Amino acid sequence: MRKGVAALSFLLFFLLLFSYFYLPSKSISDLYQEIPEQVRQNSQLVAAYYYSQTGFNGFREYQFAFYNPESKTLSIYTFETYKFLKIWPRMKKSKITCKTPFNYSLLATSPEKLKDFTNCDNCRQLLYKDKIYRNEEIENLQPRLDELLRPDLNYWKVTGIKSQEISIGAVSMYSGDTIRDIGFEGYPGALILPSQGKDVEKATWITIYLDDRPRVAIHYPENVTLHSIYQQDVNSSTLWTAENPKLQDIIRGIKEFGEYSEKAWRFKVSIWDPDTAWIEWIIPEERTYAYLKIGKDPIPLRRIHFRRVYITHCSIN
């Protein structure tokens, strides 16, 4: 009897240990073929991403971002292998499609490059402009704030968004029986590339500046900038330049929140003038949304707890 109990205990221990470490993987190239053929034929692949974490809460995430030049839409397909009840592997699929005023054909990459992905544990890989970047290379790829601000332009707003995955659109949270928008609207149709780490200055940056007309510029790695006319009024009395000395104080203040940037699923910095910045982030594991204001008339850190996971949807503003 004791031997049977011991054998059963050993078997259960082995199964738990196996379930802790084991997480099936698929070829990202094969998953690409599961996307509808019409999408693959009519759209351009602009980025692909693989993200893996092992352990009790382990997962493997595979993402594809497409741009359809005819309908002017961005679509993100996500395949995620996770552990149901922390034990049994399951795969869930999702898709989000948003209209975009930006021409993402400039970022089109060859699907053949997907064959160069190598599945690994506790790693990240990003396909961007026909080259695969791994782990820290992804962060180093991102443009820095001080690299994109030009002294010859008059800025109205500068927004930096960091995300743990390829994302697009606004973010909402379930709070009780209602769904509440919490900001992060960014600009309609802006593709956010993945970025982690404590360096807040490296992100997907969106600037609104006054040229002949108010314009939006989205800054991507390797000096790629996409432009669009801004559809709302810009108050000329609030314009400022990159040479404003107060701006450096704001940038130094933003850097202090790098620890939240590293943990957050999405982290956002909005500089409305050279001495005011709003900082917001979501940490899904802690079910919290947090925000604060630094610079002029500061607001201390505040947290809002939500009951259910966040959702993304296409912003309309």
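That was protein one. Protein two is written in the same sequence-then-structure order:
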Amino acid sequence: MTRKWFLLGLLFISLVGEGQEFQLTEVIPDNTYDEIADRMSCIENEVPLAFNERVMAFIDYFAIKDREYTKDIIRKKELYFPLFSETLARHNMPDELKYLAIVESGLRPNAISRANAVGLWQFISSTGKMYGLHSDWYVDDRMDPEEATDAAARHLKDLYRMFDSWELALAAYNCGPGNVRKAIRRSGYKREFWDIYRYLPRETRSYVPQFVAITYLFNHLEEHGFDPQPELFHPEMDTIMISQYFHVETFCNQLDLCLDDMLMWNPQIKRGALPEGTKNFALRVPVEWKEEIVANRNHLYDTASKVGKEHLDYLARNTPGSTYGRERLYYRVRSGDVLGTIAQQYGVRVSDIRSWNGIRGNLIRVGQRLSIWVLPTYNSDTKNLYTASNPQPKPTTSQASSITSSGKMYTVKYGDSLWSISRSNNTSIEKLKLANKLSSNTIKPGQSLVIPN
């Protein structure tokens, strides 16, 4: 069989009664190297699209081997391409840079890589912060299509100014400008991507050719047997402003809106809620619903403010690796230190320290700087009831509680909240606050509480 009609899949033959049933799967047109090279030269572009065997291999990969992946991108391209094109035009940048998001994330706004790069444009936390992308336990701007796309455009523009080459800017977007400068030095200070190619990290050597292959394919989908028509579209959207704790599912239920759709329109909301203290969060909603929302705003917002707050706040503060509501300190590892003693010193968990610092086992090095995120209740003098030289054990069950005439006494431990204490003692938060004359939900380790009868 010639490559002219390459069959994707198999020809299934099965007997049905006395006859035969034939099911023919997809037929893919053949495209020669010279044909693709000719088409590539005709694409209107500002980013160089060098064509070679490496690029050809990726074209075959996306057009044949992983054809379903390409179809999935085509289905949802109109969810994001109009936003990408509008943002790039506003920054006076080449429109074909929109295809970079396919290489980065496969057009998945909630994509998370092994290196904890997040979103359509795969920002790591530090680079995201450089471009104004805030992230915490509840909300991650790196997953916000509009915010992240604008940040990516500005980042790419900065890299282009740095290297005066779109190919090198793309390489630096993947591996960082330091690695590109190192490759330039090792090549004898050459300034073309393909001249420094073999000195770049392995992933980057594939990254730019993938971008070229995707750019070509999305300019010639029909020639490779793809239906270029997308299937998914966003409705016309508007925004409403939220400045309070806001439970998204409760809000959707009141309006008979689909929760999955609402979270697709607002993918930066990670936990299905906006935290207390939120200021002017622009929630995207369909235009057709805005009038009803505005007319019933007070009732809708009030109801959405009363569900799940205590539980989510507890999870936010106690999920391993969470930094929500914490302040970052740094600790320099000394001889004899182990993760357990450092965790005791700062009133955190070993699993937290591992997560915050990307540590897989228990190995730490003398002189290593560790990020430690402490709660507002942490005191550097008392160490949250623990010190490095003389760690005090946590209160035992008998120490933690005793019986009084008005109820059981309970000593607050690290990680406790009014919600967790009320659940474990079969009472309510309101009764706890009343019995202890508390005006807020704030409690501290070591604090004594009356558990009402």
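The chain has four domains: 33-224, 237-307, 326-385, 397-452. Keep this in mind for the problem set.
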